[in-house]
Every structure is written in C-alpha cells, then in structure tokens.
Amino acid sequence: MSNLKVGLVGIGMMGRNHARVLRAMEGVDLVGVADPGGDRYGMAGDAKVVAGVDELIGLGIEAAVVATPTAFHLAAGLELARAGVHTLIEKPLATDADESRRLVEAFEAAQVVNAVGHIERCNPALRALRARLDQGDLGDIYQVATRRQGPFPNRIADVGVVKDLATHDIDLTAWVIRSPYARVYASVAHKSGREHEDLVSVTAQMADGTVANHLVNWLSPLKERLTVVTGERGAFVADTLHGDLTFHENGVVATEWDQVASFRGVSEGNSTRFAIPKPEPLRVQLEGFRDAILGRDGEIVTMREGMVTVTVADAVLRSGQTSEVIVLGD
Whole-model pTM? Predict the structure, then answer.
C-alpha cells in the first residue's frame, strides 16, 4: 500500500513542527508545502514548495494540514474541501463561530475526514487524567481550574489571548470531564498596547454543574500550563508543560492541632506523582489524523467540535465586552 500524500499549508513556527513530524512519520509522504514566503527555514525537505493552495492541490495531495494564521483558515479550508482533501486545521478552527460553521458544512458535505489541531487532547498528562476521572478515581467532580500564562509570542498578530490560548482550556475542560459549557462570565484586559486582549479571567459553569475557572495571559515572565480538577476525593494537577500528573488525596488521618481540626472541610493527605508514557503530542495528533483517513479508527477532534470551542470563545469575548453572563445553547 502506497503512502498517503500530504500537503502542508503554512510553514511558519507551527508549520515547521508539522513538517518535522510529517517527514518522519510512517505511512505518509510530505509532497508539498504552500507558503507565499517560501521555505525560509529549510524544513520542507524533499517536498515541493509552492505559493498557494491551488498549486498544492495540483500536486495530487490526499490530505492536508493547515498551519497558517487564523485569518486564513477559512479560505484555505474551503478550497481544500472543494477538492475533496482530508484536512486538519490548526486551532482555533476559524476567527469566529460563523466562519467555523462554513468550514464544518463544507467538509461534512465533501464527506472527507476533517479535524482541528486541539493538541492538548494528546498531552499525556491530560489523557491520563481523563482516564482516571472516567474510572471514578476522583468521585464527584466539583471544579476545573486552569492557568495558562507566559510572555507574548511574537508570531501572533491576528487574534488575542482568548482565541489563541484560552481555546486550549475551553476545549480540554469540556473534553476531560465530558460536559459542555452552560454559561460563561469573563473579564478581559488590554495592557500591552495591542489591538487584541492580552489577559482574560473566565468563570463558567458546565452543563453538569461543575464550576470552571480559566486564567490566561500573555503578560507573565512565568510560563505556566496547569489544569487542576478538584472533587470528592481530592485534586488532580496536570502540568501540561511537562506532561506530569499528580494526585493530592483528601487526608484520612485526624489532626491533633485544635485550630486546624475545628475547620470543617478536607485535610491534606498523600500525594502521588504518576509515571506515565510521554509521546510527543503533535506526533500523537498527526498519527490519529492519518489513521482516521486510513480507516483505522484514529482519534481526532472534529471540526464540529472545534466549532463548539470557537462558539464558547466568542461568548467569552462578548461577556468581556458587556460584563454580562452569557448563556450557551445547544
């Protein structure tokens, strides 16, 4: 069986990572790269470098990865859908829910595999966390709190911190606990003089009653990627920057310190840091996309799921502008 012919649209910072993984991955051949700026960093290898998506389609590609700035996702995606090319588009799916819906409709009508690059679903810490929640290790889930902060990445020019970073937390929260968002309230700030917001604080409630909180910014010298899930039996802490998962369990030993013992709540117990396999998330994501195309039940995030995440992100921005609680429908 011949290898899958894959094309890459955009070979900037994220595109270079896709090119590296695709070139080394079994069962695929990276045959072309489309970027009007060319292959400035020499990452295309033997793949032909062309200027546009139409030329890339002309190379006979069967699948494509779109890693352009978000503003160009719609145009590139629609062209690939019309050509019947299986496509993975980097997150966020599009600039807003309306554009996302157009992509979903186009790819579903074309009946080809369509996916979004929500890479946190492939993070080993979050995959292990979801599995442990599914088997009831935490009992009832009370809260999901995420922190995602660090310096401003110069590669981002067309969206703010909500669409670029908070979409990670929006998607992973609903995925990890298997419940959609019911309502959101957000505060945003513009501190660095850019057009788009660079800080957001989100308080949300999920459909199952779980409370969610997201603190996201581009204003911190400290790079942090944490997801804390608190529940009946303790708290899981997933450090997605390092792929680590730790469980802090509620204590079962009575304290003899009267002032602490009088507090009616949980107490500190044992902490366990799990040893888990740590494959590269991008490789896991692209292998899932490849396997889905080849009919091997590969795990992907569909564009319809990506549209839901963008819809929630739109609600976060709307709440930040109006200071209102936004209720989300189906």
Answer: 0.92
